[in-house]
Amino acid sequence: MKDFQQIFGAAPDSLASAPGRVNLLGEHTDYNDGFVLPTAIPQRTTVHLGFSPDGQHHFYSQELDELVSIWDHDHTPQGFASYIFGCIRLLEQEGHTIPPVNLHITSSVPIGSGLSSSAALEVATLRGLRVLLKLRLDDVHIAQLGQQAEIQYAGVKCGIMDQMASSLADTEHMLFLDTRTLESRVMPFPTGAEVLAIDSGVPRTLAESGYNQRRAECEEAARQLGVQALRDITDAQVVEGLPEPLRRRARHVITEDNRVLEVLQGVSAQRFGELMNASHTSLRDDYEVSVPALDALVAMLQETPGVFGARLTGAGFGGACVALVTSGQGLAIAQNVVERYGRTHNPGGRILVPEVSQPL
Ligand code: GLA
Question: Which of 116, 120, 123, 88 is closest to 102 using CA atoms?
Answer without folding.
Answer: 88
